[in-house]
Amino acid sequence: MIKYFCKKCGIDAERSECPVCGQRTDVESKIFWCDSCKVPIYDEECPICHTKGRYLTSDIRPVFPEERLLLEIILNKPLAFVNSSVWNGTGNRYYVDGKKISLSISKVNDLDPEEIRHQLDLYKSQNDSSYFDEMIERWIVANSARYHFITTEAKQFIREHSKRYLNDDTASAFVSFSGGKDSTVVSDLVRKALGTPSIIHIFGNTTLEFPHTYEYINRFRQANRKTPLLRAENREQDFFNLCETFGPPSRTLRWCCTIFKTGFIGEKISKTFGETKTVLTFYGIRRSESASRNNYERSSTGKKISKQLVASPIIDWMDYDIWLYLLTAKCDFNDAYRLGYTRVGCWCCPNNSQWSQFLASVYMPELYQKFHKILLDFAEKMGKADPEDYVRSGGWKARQGGAGIELSKNVAIEFKPCATDAKSFNYQLNKPITNELYELFKPFGDLNFEMGKARLGEVFVLDYHTKQPLIKIQGRLGTNELRLSILGSPIAARTKIVEIELKFKCQITKYQLCSGCHACENICRHGAIKLIKIGEDDTAYQYVIDENKCVHCFECINHYTGGCYMRRVLLPRGKGYSENA
Question: What percentage of the chain reaches a pLDDT higher than 90?
């Protein structure tokens, strides 16, 4: 049972938005247990036997026979629950016939994955699913009212938000399809709500997906031939190589999402929808997934991809609802969930739980060992006293900043104001000047190479309206000394010298740190920025700005603190460092 209550208006609501004031409501979720039917129920009274259920937990999901066998082996009770109703509730707590069983996740990580695999193979042929199948059918019947309510409401939301985007030449729509349970539900809902299988799906292949995800994607493509399933992926860079350059991703520094997911989904959107001004994206985001997602709105503007509008039909669904829909509607889904994974994304994500790490060691031993070695090597490189403990305890997940990483040296900009001219600034760069440096000054205005003295390496930036000089760039190619002079204003919509100089630093930071993360490409809604691969190295890219497309909106300068996404990843934290340095 889910209850919505608006504290401001003092009323109950049917959704997470108050019908009176429009603000977010408080949410309370309760799942009950029917001891007679041995299934969870949404309402306190069981719709099948009409007995009163008892409160069990706030959210729950079914445990499939494959995961149940793993649980039994961990508990040294193979096949003990084969004829029991087994579920997993909030906090990764297991319930057998409505009773909580004791399981220590920390102790699970001490088990031998090879022995676990041996036991799984030994009992696999005896792992009967008959009782599970019968139990699920009872559960579906007992919760049919909830299924019809959430399905009807979600379809109505989809239809209402699709009207403009399916009948307007300046707008389009697609489904963001990850191969996980949530996007599977959204895909099914959207196709049924709109009455067509032909809506485009985009699969962002991070190259780090579960093997089961690729299998499911192939099954989906075969079963839904009328649904265009496009693939967006980074074929130019290797995750493991970049771990050497940037350090492994952490919870706060998930550079992998930008480089392997957002960037190339954005590129696929641009190529697919061309000059379309707005693209409506149906996402499987849910607030109950995490504290950060609890703040998401049901409809919003894309934060990382500029032309994107996001609609989340199932934003208020619980895990309970997701599985109720999938199993009632008889949807095919990713087999990783049968093994015990609660979330399916990148198998090495720093947001994964200890339980997910354990499952990876059991079901993906080669990939697990490869990444484990990278983490150990990084821990040793960082001088950790006990690298093994640092990795096993998840210390790498909490890493902040780029201390000890070679490229982080380029974060700092050595700067000296000119003693004779308050509007001129001298910089000692960490890499020699090339023509790419000038490219990064195009957003400020038009480049002019004729006005300056070539022997001094002078290039002028002109106001794109008046053609009057705004900036003088002085620095010979191949040297590391750069001088910038303010000749006019406003520059980047700023008139104060100190603010203009900070905008200069933004572009110098890009020049020194650019590693081809593709973040800038996606924040430019005019398609003026392009990263071009220029060498074998995973970070070798040329930053190009098309002056014919650039409208001088300065979003590429202002979007990220300090001007560059990778600055946040590589900025060393601690004494002597500042986020705004």
Answer: 71
Quick one: average pLDDT of 54-61? 96
pLDDT of residue 406: 85
Single-letter residue type at 460: F
Find out whether 482 and 493 touch, Cβ atoms under 8 Å.
Answer: no
Beta carbons within 10 angstroms of residue 188's beta carbon: 19
Identify the CA nearest to 113 among candidates 340, 397, 364: 364
How far apart are the C-alpha atoms of 93 and 103, rounded to whole Å? 8
Q: Is pLDDT of 558 > 50?
A: yes
- For residue 358, name the pLDDT band (cuts at 50, 70, 90): very high
Integer Cα distance of 4 and 548 in angstroms = 51
CA angle (442, 448, 449) in 5-degree steps: 115
Please list, in sequence order, all residues whose beta carbon lies within 8 angstroms of the beta carbon of residue 222, skipping any fewer than 6 positions away: none
Contacts of 98 by beta carbon, 8 Å cutoff, 6+ apart: 33, 35, 38, 54, 56, 85
Report which of 61, 154, 54, 71 is spatially closest to residue 108, judged by C-alpha positions.
71
Residue 125's contacts (CB-CB under 8 Å, 6 or more residues apart) are: none
For residues 64 and 338, is the Cβ–Cβ distance under 8 A?
yes
pLDDT band for position 266 (50/70/90)? confident
CA-to-CA distance for 183 and 217, rounded, in angstroms?
Answer: 12
Q: Is a pLDDT exceeding 60 seen at residue 206?
A: yes
Eight-state DSSP code of residue 103 = -
Residue 321: name the closest of 59, 19, 8 by CA.
59
Listed residue (436, 212, 251) closest to 333, CA to CA: 212
Q: Which residues of 147-158 are buried (b: 16+ CB within 10 A; e: fewer)?
A: beebbebbbebb
* Cα–Cα distance for residue pair 476/90, rounded to 1 Å: 62
- The domain spans of the chain are 2-142, 157-363, 407-570
Q: Can you give 413-439 as a three-state secondary structure string?
A: CEEEECCCCCCEEEEECCCCCCHHHHH
* Per-residue DSSP letter, 492: T
Asked if 468 and 491 touch (Cβ cutoff 8 Å), the reply is no
Residue 1 CB-density burial (10 A; 0-12 exposed, 13-18 middle, 19+ buried): middle
CA-CA distance, 397 to 108, in Å (whole number)? Answer: 19
Distance CA 517, CA 128 (A): 48
Structure tokens at 42: 């949404």
Tokens read off for 366 = 């080669």
* Nearest partner of 407 among 512, 263, 503, 490, judged by Cα: 512
CB 336, CB 344: distance < 8 Å: yes
The model's pTM is: 0.87
Which homologous superfamily does the CATH classification assign to the domain defined by 157-363? HUPs (3.40.50.620)
Note the pLDDT tens digit of each residue in 94-134: 999 999 998 888 788 889 999 999 999 999 999 999 999 99
CB 368 within 8 A of CB 356: no
Sheet holding 54-57, edge to edge: 39-41, 31-34, 54-57
State the distance between the two ends of the chain, measured CA to CA, in whole angstroms.
Answer: 50
Q: What are phi and psi of 310, to 5 degrees?
A: -110, 130
